[in-house]
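2024-03-11 09:14:02 INFO worker-7 job=invfold-0412 stage=load source=structure_tokens
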């Protein structure tokens, strides 16, 4: 095969002049006209005077191996592409999902302001408070993009020592501006004097928001004879602080209890199926756990996440176990 003639010539010359073993691969046109890959290994045999007299060696057809290598290479390239696309897709849908929440809050706040302005029925202090909340939400949206990007890329968290109850209260306040939440009775059962805990405030806030949003959507799903309600509870048990989100919606079938946490699993028409998967990732990054508990007291869903009080100790213990 013309393009490979030089390769073969050079290898033979080196073997001859430098008395090196011959080891070369090249292509040639077979008798049927097809191109085949050949491997050649050989050695120059010298006479007693050290002059080359002939060469011994083998040639064999490696076309099949070459074809397999090429196919494998192509597969690896397309696999790498799929992995890249997947990572991008996940990042995009995570961001879309998380941003949905502050954007909803901003829409609700500004609509509220507009309505009051149009009616001429407002107190300036009231508008200022709502607009301040709007600013806080757009700052939050920015922080989500920034932190989510870092978190997904490098798994980074920004720890602060904080009271978990305050995050819950803040989140519920945000949700109260959502008209969908107004129809639901959200009850807080927060254990006072909980020890402060080292967590990423924004990420844990996202988890509470996701669970609460799911609970609200669940209570809207069916016509309930009872009033729709949600209970958010905090409790300390052993060396951890737990948060329960209980609703009296239709609940989740037990056989789906693990599937719910896998990315893209959704039973909703417009769902993305990322909420619980993100929640679990965030909680596990805090060395905690998120689970769906059976036998909900409300007959609906009962989600619980727990965070260790002593993160460092737990991390070290986990490493030992691993
Ligand atoms: P999405 O809300 O976009 O569907 P999630 O990951 O948040 O994504 O939830 C996955 C699925 O888990 C939901 O589609 C729903 O079937 C189920 N689920 C989550 N929370 C509840 C709940 N409180 N009650 C009943 N089912 C729930």
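2024-03-11 09:14:09 INFO worker-7 stage=emit residues=322
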């Amino acid at each position: 095969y013309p393009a490979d003639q030089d390769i073969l010539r050079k290898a033979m010359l080196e073997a001859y002049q430098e008395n090196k073993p011959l080891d070369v691969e090249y292509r040639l046109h077979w008798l049927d006209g097809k191109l085949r890959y050949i491997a050649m290994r050989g050695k120059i045999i010298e006479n007693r005077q050290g002059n080359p007299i002939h060469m011994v060696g083998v040639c064999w057809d490696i076309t099949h191996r070459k074809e397999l290598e090429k196919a494998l290479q192509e597969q690896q390239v397309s696999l790498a592409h799929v992995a890249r696309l997947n990572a991008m897709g996940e990042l995009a849908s995570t961001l879309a999902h998380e941003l949905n929440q502050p954007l909803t809050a901003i829409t609700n706040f500004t609509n509220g302001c507009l309505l009051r302005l149009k009616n001429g029925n407002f107190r300036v202090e009231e508008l200022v408070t709502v607009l301040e909340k709007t600013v806080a939400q757009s700052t939050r949206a920015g922080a989500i993009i920034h932190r989510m990007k870092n978190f997904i890329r490098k798994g980074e968290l920004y720890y602060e020592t904080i009271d978990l109850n305050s995050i819950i209260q803040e989140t519920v306040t945000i949700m109260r501006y959502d008209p969908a939440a107004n129809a639901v009775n959200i009850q807080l059962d927060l254990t006072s004097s909980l020890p402060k805990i080292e967590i990423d405030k924004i990420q844990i806030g996202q988890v509470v928001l996701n669970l609460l949003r799911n609970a609200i959507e669940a209570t809207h799903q069916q016509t309930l004879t009872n009033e729709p309600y949600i209970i958010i509870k905090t409790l300390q048990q052993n060396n951890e602080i737990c948060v329960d989100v209980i609703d009296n919606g239709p609940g989740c079938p037990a056989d789906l209890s693990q599937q719910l946490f896998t990315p893209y699993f959704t039973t909703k028409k417009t769902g993305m199926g990322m909420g619980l998967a993100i929640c679990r990732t965030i909680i596990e990054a805090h060395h905690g756990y998120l689970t769906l508990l059976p036998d909900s007291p409300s007959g609906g869903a009962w989600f619980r996440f727990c965070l260790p009080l002593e993160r460092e100790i737990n991390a070290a213990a986990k490493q030992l176990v691993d």
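2024-03-11 09:14:09 INFO worker-7 stage=report msg="Residues 37 and 66 are 7 Å apart (CA to CA)."
2024-03-11 09:14:10 INFO worker-7 job finished
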